[in-house]
Amino acid sequence: MIRILTLLFFVPLFCSAQDVLPKNVEGKYEFTEVVNVDSANADKLYSRAKIFIVDAFKSGKDVTQLNDDASKTVIGKGIIQISFKSLIGSADKKLVNFKLTIQCKDGRYKYTLTNFVLEMIGPNYNDSAPLEDEERIKKHMLGKKQTAELFDQLNEKIKALITNLKNTMAGKTSSTKDW
Question: What is the CA radius of gyration of the chain?
Fold first, then answer.
């Protein structure tokens, strides 16, 4: 019993914050999935992908990097703001930039979120680092506790974004229904 309690206490201490987010074979953080959508052709899915970009971000035009009608691909740059509970450094903006790719084919689409970069902007501080550089983020930008909180918040916000994407691509949002 004591061994089990000891393991339950110490195992979380050895787990890295990075274990919260999925990684690809190259060791980079990446969320990706191929999603089947019955009875939706590539043109309809492509149209919904563009609607998602406009609805999910403040300015769809500023976010969108590529709209390729031939390949039915939308590529955009997204930003997620992270806020921490402590007041220290609360004047600093903590943003995570990422690349979003949506590729559409008849009956399915693939989304990929990659290239996550933490950017901190403040009155006396401006720095950025890819999330894969967790040691630099821990030691020079946020500290251990806030780094763990960053990864937890980012995971929650990305999952919410993906849910929103799936609903839009399935035609379940108000902007994709007939009015």
Answer: 19
